[in-house]
Amino acid sequence: MVVAMALPRRCVVWFGRPAGAERDELEHSGWPVRVADVQASGVGARNGDVVVALADLRQGDDATLQAMEGMVAEHPGVPWIALVSPETPAHEPRVTSILRDCMAVFTSPIDLPRLRDALDRLGQGGVPARSKPDMPGLVGSSQAMQALRTSLRKYAPVDLPVLITGETGTGKEVAARAVHQLSPRAGRPFVAINCGALPSNLVQSELFGHERGAFTGATTRRIGHIESACGGTVFLDEIGDLPLDAQTNLLRFLQEGTIVRVGSSQSLRADVRVLAATHVDMEKAVAAGRFRQDLYYRLNVLRVQIPALREREGDVELLAQHFLDGFREHHDCHARAFNVAARRALREFPWPGNVRELVNRVQRAAVVADDTLIGVGDLDLPVRPGRSPVAGLDRARVSAERDALVACLRETRFNVSECARRLGIARVTVYRLCKKHGLALDELAQAAR
Ligand SMILES: Nc1ncnc2c1ncn2[C@@H]1O[C@H](COP(=O)(O)OP(=O)(O)OP(=O)(O)O)[C@@H](O)[C@H]1O
């Protein structure tokens, strides 16, 4: 039987069985608890209610897990928190799927003050606090990112060039900045140069500087980027685009530690560490004669590959929330977090433009979202029906339920009481099922006339 619950405006709907102390603690801190049965109850929230749903996975058989999975999927607009025990089979697909859609997970014995804090944050439209990144600017807790951090930490103190490779927008410059920050050069300048954006006739002068009168228009002496990074680090982005003559001078600098300004014959010592990045295949560029092999060897002493965003399990949501929080610090917007469907879409999208594309989509969504939870439409991401958590048998079951309901409604000429009697369910269940399947009774009845 379905229980239609009249909720207070602020409430925890607890699917499962809270211990007395757990319930008391929440009620005393202003969070009335409504205990709900996942097999028979809905969330029951009205517009404007502040409701947080708790998926209590500490007890429960497979049928409960299945119903819980469906319940979470059916209520994408509600923030969910999961409670698990050390015995909860976290590797089982149903549990994994539920946990993924929850904004926070607490393991028993539940730390009640932390749970209360999480509820307060969600109640204000925020998300539970997350741990700060342990490397400057580099957010992500996936295995791929942990391995990357380990390499960057190892390479930072060694005063050798690092070649950073990876697809566009993966965070090569962020990684270069982290190396600089973690190195003994941290207090000195970090100068980033996009080699692909330098005008070809000015590359040498931009990198190494020029003397007055070195060429038409050189009315004053100019210090180049490498010299201006003195004592610090220079980051040469898109190194594969560096013209061959500039490659020769860069090689000399790497071998001898000296530069020569354009129009001068004097060598100047420059204490600068070089980090370089590329998204092109440097071996191919060398084979094609576009890049000097000796320079490639010099730059490629230490090498890190930044993983594509699609290879970082679990990081997309973390990054998306990070960018949303950052956006909110400087702009007024309603959005505080992402609903279940949006988080699923974030996980499933292949992100060809990597983290940069994610930044752009999140910022756009933060501007257009009218709700506190960003939806799939706000992110302008496709919904992939084939990847719904209600997959396979479950989807077949849902679709059979819908078909049976529509057929019975038609047979009974949309008489809800008669339809309920024939299906052997309560009238309220007919209404609940119509809502669940997105069926507007009035419109259906009208269309059938
Ligand atoms: N791990 C990360 N944590 C936080 N922000 C990140 C991370 N990785 C990338 N970003 C952000 O994503 C955007 C793109 O990063 P970045 O410019 O470092 O990428 P890139 O690989 O150097 O790009 P390109 O190939 O175009 O030079 C930046 O806004 C950066 O701050």
TrEMBL record:
Xref: Gene3D superfamilies: 1.10.8.60, Homeodomain-like, P-loop containing nucleotide triphosphate hydrolases
Domain Sigma-54 factor interaction: 138-367
A GO BP entry: regulation of DNA-templated transcription
Keyword field contains DNA-binding: yes
Keyword annotations from UniProtKB, A to Z: ATP-binding, DNA-binding, Nucleotide-binding, Transcription, Transcription regulation
GO MF annotation: an example: ATP binding
Protein name: DNA-binding transcriptional response regulator, NtrC family, contains REC, AAA-type ATPase, and a Fis-type DNA-binding domains
Taxonomic source organism: Frateuria terrea
